[in-house]
Each structure stands twice: as C-alpha cells, then as structure tokens.
Design a protein that fits this description.
Strand content: under 5%
Shape: elongated
Number of domains: 1
Order of helices and strands: HH
Radius of gyration: 18 Å
Largest sheet: none
Number of strands: 0
Length: 80
C-alpha cells in the first residue's frame, strides 16, 4: 500500500513552494558564486573561509528569496 500524499490548492501565494525553490536555487546559484568570488580574496584559515561563505551566501539567499517571492506573487495575481 502506498503512503498517503497530501495535496494543496492554496489561495494566493504558495509559501511552501517559495521556501523550497529558494532553498534549491540558493544552493545551485550560491555555491558557484561563493567559489568564484573567493578567488579574489585571501582566505587563509577555515574560519575566514566560513565567514566569507556565510556573508556572501546570505546576500545570495536574500536576493533569491525576494525574487522567488515576487515571482510567486505575480503568478498568484494572474491566476485569480
């Protein structure tokens, strides 16, 4: 017997989709961005590397999160 799968039909913005898409895009886009930008900085210790990745990753996450939310909001407006 297969497990029960929940389905939803949200009115307006599907925040679950926004969170999942933001998570995936942050990893897919953020990792190459952090790696590429790290080439221009001297990061000698693991602490410096982690601090750099967190700071750049936070900016990437914020930009992607806002973009995904605005996209979802625009799509929710057109479907009503």
């Amino acid at each position: 017997m297969s497990p029960h799968v929940e389905t939803t039909n949200p009115d307006g913005i599907d925040y679950g989709w926004v969170m999942q898409t933001t998570f995936v895009l942050t990893i897919v886009v953020g990792a190459p961005v952090v790696a590429g930008l790290s080439l221009f900085f001297e990061l000698l210790t693991w602490g410096q590397r982690a601090n750099f990745a967190i700071r750049v990753g936070a900016v990437v996450w914020l930009c992607i999160g806002i973009s995904v939310y605005l996209y979802a909001r625009s799509q929710a407006d057109t479907s009503m």
